[in-house]
Design a protein that fits this description.
The chain has 249 residues and is mainly α. It is built from eight helices and no strands. The protein is globular.
């Protein structure tokens, strides 16, 4: 019917208009790729942590130190550093979009840059901004020690998301859209990172609570040893007293 054809025509015009708008938006990002990467990553980091605190954890007030961690991490690492790493360094080492080059970049991101750069940077920023260490020289050693304790769980959680995620990054996305794409796609991952690793003080409390049973067990064991030694000493005294008294008859 004419009504049906008119409806299809309107839908096609809307689709073409939307595609045209996306193309214009993409062309603007292509003109300023570094700025786009930094803005997308910074906004994503802060909004993901705020969402996690308010919605997932149900907090009435935002932890501003924790929020600052994700804003700072989003700006410096996910925006500035990852743009230079992916758009400059990786493209110099593995230029182009061939299957071999894209696969190399995918593997390098998951097995090299994330374990060596992503997580250590996050732990150092978190330690520096959320824990009020008296000696600032201890920030990096403490942060790396915490990362060492959690590294395997962090790697597995990241690989579950980013092996398929970076397939899209390197096989499908144009160069100027890679960091903005990751910034949008990683919202849920940053929420997960915020939920698991955002609260450094809570993580320390969990470690302490795990150590408490061991301390109690050690105290109990020590008390038992002291009691056994006391009973042994009393038995020895009774035996010596019996010998010194001599036979009764």
């Amino acid at each position: 019917s004419l009504f049906g054809l008119g409806h299809i025509a309107c839908s096609l015009r809307a689709h073409v208009g939307m595609c045209g708008g996306l193309r214009r938006f993409s062309s603007k990002l292509a003109k300023h790729p570094f700025a786009a990467a930094v803005v997308f990553s910074t906004v994503k980091g802060g909004s993901a942590d705020a969402f996690t605190q308010r919605v997932l954890e149900g907090k009435s007030e935002l932890d501003r130190d924790r929020l600052a961690v994700f804003i700072t991490f989003g700006f410096f690492y996910q925006g500035c550093f990852q743009y230079m790493l992916w758009a400059k360094l990786f493209e110099r080492i593995w230029p182009g979009r061939s299957f071999r080059a894209s696969l190399s970049k995918l593997v390098a991101t998951n097995l090299i840059s994330d374990p060596v750069f992503f997580f250590p940077t996050f732990y150092v920023i978190r330690e520096a901004l959320t824990t009020k260490a008296n000696d600032r020289r201890q920030v990096v050693p403490i942060a790396l020690r915490k990362y060492r304790d959690n590294c395997f769980r962090d790697w597995v959680a990241g690989w579950c998301v980013w092996f398929p995620g970076h397939y899209v990054t390197y096989f499908w996305m144009p160069l100027h859209l890679r960091v903005p794409w990751v910034a949008c796609a990683s919202f849920s991952y940053i929420c997960l990172l915020s939920y698991l690793r955002g609260d450094a003080r809570q993580e320390e409390a969990l470690v302490v609570s795990k150590d408490v049973p061991d301390a109690k067990e050690a105290t109990t064991h020590g008390s038992c040893m002291e009691e056994a030694a006391r009973l042994s000493a009393e038995a020895t005294e009774i035996s010596l007293a019996g010998r010194s008294a001599g036979p009764l008859c």
